[in-house]
Amino acid sequence: MPDPRPVTLISVDIEAAGPSPSDYAMLSLGACLVDDPEQAFYVELQPDREKVDDAAMSIGGFTLDGLRASGTPPREAMTAFADWIGAVTPPHTQPLLVGFNAPFDWMFVADYFHRYLGRNPLGHAALDVKAFFAGVTGAPWGETSLHRVAEHYRLKMVLTHNALDDARDQATLFRAIRAEQQERSAGA
């Protein structure tokens, strides 16, 4: 049976040492409310795995040694994130992860929540900004890159690969797509 509660949309972005949480550590996590991006969360994590993909590591500018020294232990980081989600999610609503390529971010977040807390307060669903854009505009999948979506809305965005900056940019894109969806629905 579907959950009748309205959702609280939370834009989430992560940076990782590689392509999957089974082998690679999540290095940083940023989140913000889609409709109030100043309500935000950011943490850099101590690595819990040693395997690295050189291309992934070059993107975020992190090193495992640097994060071992300055990062937050994963259990503490995920507890703080769960607490933040609880604080920003109004009663009688459910949090919903929104991401640009949401499956990637969701799999790391879900894995870390289950690994360290035994539960995932974001549940088992996520809303993908790329898929939402394709559905609203009819754009083919190949036209759903960040550059193309931002260009469609005349937004200038450059991925910084800072998880919080990128989560805020995702929220901006999502709001633009939602506005177009609402305009199309009103005109129908």
Automatic annotation (TrEMBL):
Keyword Hydrolase tagged: yes
Protein's organism: Microcella pacifica
Exonuclease domain mapped to chain residues: 8-183
Record key words, sorted: Exonuclease, Hydrolase, Nuclease
Molecular function GO labels: 3'-5' exonuclease activity; nucleic acid binding
GO biological process annotation, one example: DNA replication proofreading
GO cellular component, one term: cytosol
Pfam short name (any one): RNase_T
Protein name: 3'-5' exonuclease
